[in-house]
Design goal:
Number of strands: 6
Distance between the termini: 151 Å
Helix content: 40-55%
Largest sheet: 2 strands, antiparallel
Radius of gyration: 52 Å
Number of helices: 6
CATH superfamily of one domain: Photosystem II 12 kDa extrinsic protein
CATH architecture of one domain: Orthogonal Bundle
Length: 203
Amino acid sequence: MTRFPSQLRPQLSRFARFTGLAYLANLGRARLARMARSIRMLPHQLIHQLTQLPRQLVHHSLHVVAIAALILSMGGTWMLAKDANAAPGQKPAVVTASSSAVTSTKQAPSQAPLSDDDLVRPRPAKKDVTGKINLNTATEDQLMLLPSVGPSKAERVVTWRKKSGGFKRTADLRRVKGFGYKTFKRLEPFLDIKGDTTLAPRR
């Protein structure tokens, strides 16, 4: 280990103290300079934020003012589109803001246009007939003489007869679409599978 002469030790200690103090002084000056720079920038940042604050308040308040002006111009009420187009003299239905939410939830669902089958048709007059009809030889016109039998049912009977090879018994009519148990029971007195067709309107 190197030992310095005793006469140099005081000088070295003074040099070390001076060097340490100089370093600390430089470090302190750098920190003070950063702090001073931050303090100098603080007013500029505050001024920038203060100048932007009114602009933001005005931007947001414009939306509120526009909505309020719209409500005031309508007097707090408005008319539905169908009432606005109503004929003169008819009193339009006025909807308020409180009732519009309720009526909007109770609107009827849109309905599809009615087809020909959905239209209400007058019920045909009850057929009063007498005689018998041969299911294996009757034509569509003859089958239409039966009560509750129209063109579509008569056509289905003829089609089923051709496809199945004829009726083996009158109860086979229930296999044709549209002829359920009640319909068959109502027609049974006029049905037959052999002989001539004598069915005719009652006079």
